[in-house]
Amino acid sequence: MALYKQLALGAGLAALLSTAAHADLSGKVIGFSQIGSESGWRAAETSVTKAEAEKRGVDLKFADAQQKQENQIKAIRGFIAQGVDAILVAPVVSTGWDEVLTEAKEASIPVVLLDRGIDASQDLYLTSVASDQVKEGRVAGEWLVKTVGDKPCNVVELQGTVGSSPAINRKQGFEEGIAGHANITLTRSQTGDFTRAKGKEVMEGFLKAEGGGKSICAVYAHNDDMAVGAIQAIKDAGLKPGSDILVVSIDAVPDIFAAMAAGEANATVELTPNMAGPAFDALDAFLNGGTVPEKFIITESKLYTPADNPQGEYEARKGLGY
Ligand code: AHR
Predict the structure, then answer these.
(1) Ligand 1 contact, 39 CB (< 6 A)
(2) Bridge-based pairing state of the strands 267-270 and 303-304
(3) Is the separation of the CB atoms in 275 and 45 below 8 Å?
(4) pLDDT at 15
(5) CA of 150 to the centre of ligand 1 (A)
(6) Given ligand 1 and candidates 34, 38, 41, which is best to mutate, with the most ligand atoms within 8 Å of its CB?
(7) CA of residue 41 to ligand 1 center, whole Å
(8) Is the pLDDT reported for residue 6 higher than 90?
């Protein structure tokens, strides 16, 4: 397993792009089946991928699937028909990929998975660039354990898209993180589909069901966008997010740092939007030199809290395509 170090943020989009020196991918045609634009993080991943492609001279064929697997499958078949040199895919859900990836393999087109995993034979893709999503959930859970100490704490969970690898793994990791701490109880858990609007809506339901929210100690959201939606719902209910109800989530997008700077969010686990840098490096080495990359290229998962200069983090990230 390769651990891909994130570059220091702060100097705009250029700072996030890969600086690795490789032959080059100029003139290569690469298809990218993106999930959609459900979150700020997703928008940043799209921007970074386009910028990385331009920097490397890649002719990137971009297809937005609008959250539908059937659209992704159609796009991949289109890329195969065009005879692209490689395919990037951010798989919306983890199952149902065998057939189309077998078609890509039979056409000798290497496929790289971005940011989400799939339940399929590893022979069907060249490599996967993603975070350790179980670890992300565990880091969030361990942060909560440390923060509440022995205090009783009822937690509500906003899950990501049903059937997606981050929703499955971040749930598992969080439960591992709080395991053995009987004072912490996961009382409610529902999908908010990784969007701000659904995060708010589901949190409103949780608050109503929990007597206006007085019995909720913390909300764990599988991404920052849902956390930002939940923060709004908590405020609308007359409570203070960040103190009456703790808020912990994943992504580290600018808006969660703005909320943190305002005292309304407590912790986030960073997910770099630069999955394309390591993916293009791997394709470069493979297409130009025949080097088979490691099967799993793992990005870092760093915890940020209000002690980590949230205003500075907000300023450093806001120009990065979010
Ligand atoms: O797969 C990565 C997740 O997808 C991000 O955490 C989330 O914001 C996005 O929608």
Answers:
(1) yes
(2) antiparallel
(3) yes
(4) 53
(5) 32
(6) 41
(7) 6
(8) no
Query: Cα of 30 to ligand 1 centre, how many Å?
Result: 22
Report all structural domains of the chain as residue ranges with CATH numbers, in order of start.
13-131+272-300 (3.40.50.2300), 133-270 (3.40.50.2300)
For the residues 123-128, what does the mean pLDDT come to? Answer: 98
Single-letter amino acid, residue 37 = S
Distance between Cα 273 and ligand 1 center (Å): 9
* Residue 135: its H or E element: helix 133-148
**33 touches 63 (CB < 8 A):** yes
Percent share of the chain, pLDDT over 90? 91
The tens digit of pLDDT for each residue in 145-155 reads 999 999 999 99
Q: In ligand 1, which atom is closest to the CA atom of 166?
A: 1
With 90 as the cut, is the pLDDT of residue 293 above it? yes
Residues belonging to the chain = 322
145 vs 11, which has greater pLDDT? 145
The backbone torsions φ and ψ at residue 284, rounded to the nearest 5 degrees and listed phi first, read -60, -50
- The letter for the amino acid at 255 is D
Could you tell me if the CB of 271 is within 6 A of ligand 1?
Answer: yes
Can you tell me which atom of ligand 1 is nearest the CA of 222? 6
pLDDT for 321 equals 79
Per-position b or e across 59-95, b if 16+ CB within 10 A of its CB? ebbebebebebebbbebbeebbeeebbbbbbbbbbbe
